[in-house]
Amino acid sequence: MISSRCKRKMARGEAVFTAKACFQDPELVELMASAGLDGIWICLEHKRISPDTLHGLIQACRLGGADAIIRLKPSSYTDVISVLESGASGVMIPRVLDPDEVRNCVNMIKFPPQGKRGCDAIHPDSAFGRAKPAEYFAHSNRETMLVVQIEEQEVVPHLEEIASIPNVDVLFIGPGDLSLGLGKFGSIDSPEVFAVIREVGAVCRRHGKVAGIPCAAEQVEKYRALGYSFFNVFSDYRGVMAGLNQALATACKQ
Asked: Of 10, 42, 140, 219, which residue is least crowded by CB atoms under 10 Å?
């Protein structure tokens, strides 16, 4: 069965480092996963990925030794169950507005008695049906991760309640959309945006949850001081753009 590298590190109080896969290339995803990252974030919010390709990306994460974390806004139970059965270790819900949305997702991803997930038990997550049912259910409930994105003004008054919900692992702030909604796009250090970043860190400490944020590698220390320990520090898109810009700038000087 599939165990979560991120959850093991979070349980030990260690920092978790992830990257976002923007391109639908399993070999590129495996390259990033095998570099030592704890998780790879695969986005279904801004991308439409075919089921076969998505399965290959999740498999590439497993081959590289990193968790597959799928960002999706579930419209139904079947949106979630297929990615978990394919071997994803976690689900990230974008643009959360209220606690009931979070509770509904918990029910989708956890087997009874923690939730209402149904069982097929013939896929990678159950060792292709080889796992004993009771062990499979308990293992999946323990290892499946739920990441709740905080990126809407409307959700801020509900932070305490969301953080108190059992089986929520990470409150992951989305500073881009949060700052956009506040009319401060890109101004992450503006007082309005930074107040929410600070509050998410404080709420997570009070409720024993993990605070997450995307940031540049050199900003990790800054956010660790605010109680954050789950970081997205890279994306294949940004890596390609940075390398391309540097190569062109250097070549044009010669």
From this structure: 219
